[in-house]
Amino acid sequence: MEDQFYTDHSLSFLKKYLNTASPTGYEKAGQLVWMDYIKPYVDEVRTDNYGTAYGVINPDAEFKVVLEAHADEISWYVNYITDNGLIYVVRNGGSDHMIAPSKRVNIHTKNGIVEGVFGWPAIHTRKGDSKEQTPKVESIWVDVGAKDKDEVLAMGIHVGSVITYPDTFHVLNDKYFTCRALDNRAGGFMIAEVARLLHENKDKIDFGVYFTNSVQEEVGLNGAKMITETIKPNVALVTDVTHDTTTPMIDKKKEGDLACGKGPVVAYAPAVHNTLREMIIEAAEENEISFQRSALSRVTGTDTDAFAFSNGGVPSALLSLPLRYMHTTVEMVHKEDVESLIKILYHTVLKIKNNQSFNYFEG
Question: Distances in Å between the alpha carbon of 130 and those of 100, 102, 134, 142?
C-alpha cells in the first residue's frame, strides 16, 4: 500500500481543497471540490439542506458505518462599518483576535472577493500603557482602502459579509503540511483517501460506508447533529485534530503529552465506545502503525459527541491528528501522521463485519 499514498492526484486535491475558502455556514465551494474528488470512489454522493456532503458505498445496505470529518473553517463576520470606512468584526467560530493585526483578508461578497487588511497602529505611536496593548475583538478592524462607508457599501460589503484569510497550502521542510483550515479539512482529505483505497484495492465491503464531510462543527457540532439523524449509522469513526503539546505555552499536565510525527491519537472519553476503540488499536498494532493516546474529560469537543449520543446511542470513536498552532493561519500536521491515520481507518473498516455487534456488555 505504500506506493498508493500521496499520488499527484491526491496531493493536487489536498492543495486545492485547503486553498478553497469554506467558512462556517458557507462551505459550498470547498464541498464541491471534495465531492468532485470522492465521486469516482463511491456509489453515490449526497448532500443535506445545510451543506453536509457524503459519499456512500453500498447505499442499500442496512448496516451503516460513518467515517466523518468536518469541512468548515473559522472566519469573521462584518459587524459594523464606520463613517470613515473602517470595518469592525465578530467571530464566526473560534477565530483568534491575537493573530489578526497586519493579516491580509478576503471579504466575500456577491460581487466576488474584496481584499483588505487587519490594521494596527505602529508601535512608536502607542504611548505609555497602550504601547503593549494587546488586540481585542472589539479593537481590531479591517481596512479595505475606502474613503467612507458609502464606498465600502458600493464594494458589496455589508454587515454579515464573511471574512477569511487567504493563506495557502505549502509543505514545510518536506515533513509538514502547513495551511489554515487543516482543522479539519485534513480529515476530509483522509476519509476521501480511505474511499480511494477501498476502490482501488477492490475491497469487498458487505455494509454501507458513509464518507461524511459535515458542516458547522466550529459553532456547535451542528452539521454532525443533523446528518446523524439522516443517516442513522450503526458505527461512527470520527476524525479531527488535537494539540501537539511539545510547543511552548502548552501545559502537558493539562493537555497530555502528544507530538507531531509520533502517530495519530486514539481518544479515551465517555463518548468513545470501548469495543470500537479497541478495534482501532488492534488495526494499528496488527499493521505496525504507531499511535498515541489521549484522555479527554467530560466531552471530546468534536463531532464524536454528536454521533455517539444520537439515535439512542451510536458506537463512536475519535482518531485525531496532532496539530501545531490550532486556529491560526499556519496550522501544521506531519505528513507521516496523515498517512498513518488513513491506514488505521482503512484497516479498521476492513475489520468491521456486516451487522457486527457492539453491545457494551460483550466488549
Answer: 18, 18, 9, 20
The residue assigned the cell 446523524 is 228
DSSP summary character for residue 60: T
Nearest to 187 by CA among 292, 303, 276, 287: 303
Q: Which amino acid is at 30?
A: G
Q: What is the Cα–Cα distance from 248 to 283, expressed in whole angstroms?
A: 33
For the record, the C-alpha cell of 81 comes out as: 462599518
Residues 6+ apart with CB under 8 A from 133: 126, 139
Q: Which residues touch 363 (CB under 8 Å, ≥6 apart)?
A: 273, 274, 275, 278
* pLDDT tens digits, one per residue of 18-52: 999 999 999 999 999 999 999 999 999 999 999 99
Planar angle of CA 340, 222, 292, nearest 5 degrees: 25
Residue 362: CB atoms within 10 A of its CB come to: 7
pTM assigned to the model: 0.96
- How is 302-359 classified by DSSP, letter by letter? SHHHHHHTSTT---EEEEEEEEBSTTSTTEEEEHHHHHHHHHHHHHHHHH--TT----
Residue range 158-196, pLDDT digits in tens: 999 999 999 999 999 999 999 999 999 999 999 999 999
Cross-strand pairs, 162: 77, 108
DSSP codes, 126-158: --GGGGGPPP-GGG-EEE-S-SSHHHHHHTT--
